[in-house]
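Students often ask why we bother predicting the structure of a whole assembly rather than each chain alone. The short answer is interfaces. A chain on its own may look different once its partners are present, and contacts between molecules only exist in the joint model. In this exercise we take two input lines together and write out one structure for the complete complex. Read the inputs first and try to guess which parts will touch.
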Amino acid sequence: MLESRGHPNRLGMRGWLFGGRWGPDRYLYSLHRITGLGLLLYFAMHIILTSSRALGQGAWEESMARVSGPLFVIGEYLVFVAFAFHAINGLRLALAEVGFGVGKPIEPIYPYRTALDEQRPIVVVAMILVALLIVVGGLDFFVWH
Amino acid sequence: MTADSKPKTVLYRVLRFEPEGSSNPRWQEYTIPYTSGLTVLDGLWVIKEGVDPSLVWRSSCRMGICGSCGMFINGLPRLSCNTQISELGSSTVEVAPLPNFDILRDLVPDLGPMFDHHQALSPFILRPDREELEKPTAEYYQSSAEMERYLQFSYCIKCASCIAACPTVATDPVYSGPMPLAQAQRYNTDTRDDGFDIRKLALRGPQGPWRCHFAGECSRVCPKGVDPAKAIQLLRRDLVADYLRLRRPTPPAAVVEKPDDIARRPDIPEAPPATV
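Now the answer. The structure tokens for the assembled complex follow.
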């Protein structure tokens, strides 16, 4: 194909969150990516922090003291929230992406019924599970301990 | 209409772009009279014929069949001929070219990359009996149930709305996008086709279905109910089954033998001679 001489109009990362009047599944898609990147960042920080144990007892206790404030407890809870969402939504996606819960091809008669309608009950159950985990995790982080 | 009532109007905000100039796209406003039943495409014609003849877009059939007039209308990719202004729920109509494609001029997107991806996935019947395919002697056998496995995906009119709505395409130009992948599944599930092994090579890598994460926006905006998100998930199921050697390959549908023990009813005339 010839090189396009047009003006670039790709939405870019703006298209993950806005740039249109999108449906809830698109926001789950964006949230899944954002929580995934957040967990990756946490994992890298976790590896760097725990590797200080190799530098001896003093270095380990110093690095632990650095992350023991109340701000870090909230940060850890946010990591847990990201984990709860990413894990449950990830299981839903893994099943959907190999054809479970998306329905069979049908005759398209208006108003159209799509794979999103087939997924809707699964999405609702998954999000209730996420909410339950977040509440129980919150109690464990801030009340029971 | 009473003497003091004003005629209804509708405000069009249209994204304009002239490739000859070096400026970026800009919004231009037009106010036109509103009449009951006016579609977004009708409004564009009113502007072109009476206000600004330099406005450019692509359209043809005016009845949601050709797929030419896909535009980004009030925040969603839609067919402009299929969208009544009354259904937008606003007296302002914001019209821009479909995102995720370069703008050639005004409302005309460059759909070339989409058709390149489409072509790369062999969107046609592939089978070994080429002679029969090109000079058919009879029909290939296919049951109604077999046809229903792909019929929904064959309603695609290539309007590019799905590609404009896809958040993965928004950041990844290598990814084929919903339409080409749905068409790969359409032909893979056609029992007359034997091209699964050829298409599966083209579906490997970042252009294949693995970058889809089921945002489902393609299915939500499809004006024909093709449901590309469903097609992509089913395509992946078949590819995973094939990788795990769980997919049982079947030979493509055979040519139906002409029955030789029946006679044409006398009241049914002979078919006219072939014109091609």
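Check your guess against this: The domain at 9-109 of chain B is CATH 3.10.20.30 (Ubiquitin-like (UB roll)).
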